[in-house]
Amino acid sequence: MSRIHKRDHNGKEIFNVAKALPMEPWMIQPIFFSAQDVLMNGQAHSDPLVITLLIEEWGVRRILVDNGSLVEVLFYDTFKRMELSDDILVPSTYRIYDFNGTVTIPKGKVTLRVSDGGGYLDTLTTFCVVDVASPYETIIGRPWIAGIKGVASTYHQRLRFPTYKGIAEVVGDSQAARQCMQVDTQINEERRERKRREKNKAKESKAAEDLERVISHAVMAYETQGSEPS
Questions:
Q1: Residue 102's pLDDT is what?
Q2: What is the mean pLDDT of residues 183-190?
Q3: Three-state DSSP state, 96
Q4: By 3-state DSSP, what share of the chain in percent is helix, strand and coil, each rounded to 5?
């Protein structure tokens, strides 16, 4: 789901413009990573960064941190498990395009409290609620990361951000990340297989129509020849 962005009905990409607020001293603390921060004994990996945060007091474990996403996504299954009502959804005026061009029409937008449970992070975040299959429960993208002035590193499997108490971090869950990757691969394979079946079915239907047309023309030609005087 990398490279998720918003577009209006004319296909133009939507960017949010916010007024810049004065920077407090704690906001400009340096954020850095070292070799000691690397999980898995420094071995190379391709795991996405999957973290756990509280969303409206619900512990949401499979949150994908995606620097390529321009919108925060809350999947509808998660929305319903949180026992939230569709009545709180605000209609959205845009569509979501994922990296392979698939178009999703959101069910709506909702603003929810996101925190880390430790008093370091507490934000109001507007999510786009979409009803599509995903191994993740939600996706947080560049706007949210920028909003907390954070830095996300998939290599180090950590999200770090400044607070008035110092630099805080949320460590990724590598096991959950691998499980999500496996499920995501399965979902993509099932989607491709479904498309192949639909394509083959369409070909078979067209072939049957072409055959019926040929037979119909042949019958008409035979009947025309049979009706001619000898």
A1: 73
A2: 80
A3: strand
A4: 35, 25, 40
